[in-house]
Specification:
Elements lengths: L2 H21 L8 E9 L5 E9 L13 H9 L1 H11 L7 E6 L1 H34 L1
Helix pairs in contact: 1-3
Length: about 140
């Protein structure tokens, strides 16, 4: 990606973060939306926005099924967000926004939770083995 497209993508990411937080008041959007990446097409026609959504009611339920409704709200608000984005950006055209659930971040978080669980089980096993050795002596 060229430096110009990267700067534009960064600007879109910063502006959308504020707009989603401050302007989207849909009660179906219950989670905390994080924009992990924005990719702008070379012709500036589209901007693919990758999001993760942290729901307050779910323990690590970071999968697309748990967040389908929140993603639908963002997709329905894409036109409004594009209009608001065009008011703040100084470009001739404003790309159309396409929202995607960021599987990579969700998968990474799930793997990190699995590693932490495995480490805790290993620590418990090591401690119980040490206690058995101490009791046998």
């Amino acid at each position: 990606m060229s430096q110009r497209l990267q700067r534009l993508a960064d600007q879109i990411q910063r502006t959308l973060s504020v707009l989603i937080r401050d302007e989207i008041n849909d009660p179906r959007l219950t989670g905390f939306v994080t924009i992990s990446e924005v990719k702008v097409s070379p012709d500036l026609g589209y901007a693919d926005v990758y999001v993760t959504i942290l729901e307050p009611s779910q323990d690590g339920g970071m999968n697309i099924d748990a967040h389908r409704e929140s993603l639908t709200v963002l997709k329905n608000a894409a036109g409004f967000l594009r209009t608001e984005l065009s008011a703040t950006m100084k470009t001739r055209t404003t790309p159309r926004l396409r929202f995607h659930y960021d599987e990579v971040t969700a998968h990474g978080n799930r793997m990190m939770n699995l590693v932490n669980e495995a480490m805790q089980k290993t620590d418990k096993t090591d401690k119980s083995n040490v206690d058995e050795v101490d009791n046998n002596q």
